Amino acid sequence: MRERGMTRRQALGIGGALGLSAATGLSASAALARMPSSTGAELRSAVPLPPPFRVPLPIPSVLAPVSTSGGVDRYAITQREASAEILPGVRTPLWTYEGTFPGPTIESRRGRPVTVTHRNELPVPTVVHLHGGRTPAASDGYPTDLVLPEGWQEAAMPMGHGSGHDMHGMQGMQGMQDPRAVVTRLTRDYTFPLDQRPTLLWYHDHRMDFTAPAIWRGLAGLHIVRDDAEEALGLPAGQRELPLMIADRAFAADGSLAYPALDPTLRGQPGVTDPYLAGVLGDVILVNGAPWPVHEVDAARYRLRILNASNARHYELEAVTDDGRRLDLVQIGADQGLLAAPVTHRVLPLAPAERYDVIIDFSGVAIGSRVRVVNRLGSGRTRDVMAFRVARKATDGSRIPRTLSHDLPAWRRSDAVRERKFSFRTGRMRGGHGWLIGGLPFDPSRSDVTVGLGDVEVWRLVADVHHPVHLHLVGFRVLSRSGRPPLPHDAGLKDTVSLRPGETVEIITRFDGYRGRYLFHCHNAEHEDMGMMANLEVV
Ligand SMILES: [Cu+2]
Question: Model's pTM, two decimal places?
């Protein structure tokens, strides 16, 4: 695996991060003017890469329940090693849910509980988090609530044992105690009431210190919640509804996924090598696990349910026809479900962990031609994402209602019982580089924020570089960006908001659902592993 020299991207990654944090007098507008496209450094693959738009778009299989009795859908997922042909002619070993990347999709109904029994046959402990789920704390996948593989030696556990190792600062949380951790061996039942708005959720690994490399190796899958009201809207459905999990990766010479882990076994020392401290970017764009895929479509409306499952890469998506026209991307939903009314974009920004529910209309596109989905922030091969080939004329009974939903929360600033401010910045952690919230690296045993069940609060989130900030348990609304109104793509109910360099974003939410210990954190997965999480206790 080769690394680029000191590329512009890399200079703007960690170099940009440190530069901004040092420039204390820098105004927000000046910071935005120098905004890099992503925060991170790019790995370069060491195998030949296929041309774009040749590999068909895979659709992840829908998992069949083991049982549906007693009002609960029960599923079983085995976490195990597998290999897949991601690049044509290349075998790539993966860590998977049920043998595939992405893992199988779970389809569920609003208010109908789902229990998933996860069995860990991987060589390391795991934790499952359902991102965007309104989930009781015991099933929310707190990072120390480990599921240990069979035969895992206590002494090898990164948690709960003081470490005398004299490693540099990126060793992270090693040796930290968490008396509240609930550790199980081999299996764990995760129960999701799914008493929430219908939307696209995703499940992924959330293990303390090792979330980023575990997701990178394949531990991610989709979970869709539906209800009757949404289905009655007449949106494109069936074959014309496509989940799109976008994620960048890089490949080593032996076909494995390249990742700059300090400990490639992911058993001991956490963290990545210095050039990648700001985030790991790959040079291959995968959609549903396939490189730059192509999908044949009717000349009709399609519903694209887009997830950015990348560790650190940001996208600005455009849909461009062969004759250079940009198609409208009509947003109908955000992270936490339908908007009140559609919002039309020509360019759709997409930060790690964000989801956008988008309608695209291929009816005006010449039969036999292509629509390329491109990332305006990419360069070279990373500019392409995927393509649609418009294959045939077709009838289209779908519609996009002017009103999509009536149940969005309308919290006002005056409803808030408290305002809080959190900075998301680089800093020193255990003698080295870390990513800090409010000046502190994550500590499971520390109480950071305690909120009352049912309280409405306004949070002011301040960034140095890009930080996609995610709250567990609740959805929120974006109130402002650096004193200005929210951007068009901030509409609706979100659970992840993209803080851009130098920006201050205000959000408002009500902490309802369940009491217990939750998290909020940066969803740049490398930042998250290097300290950028905090405890959120609902009492
Ligand atoms: Cu971050």
Answer: 0.91
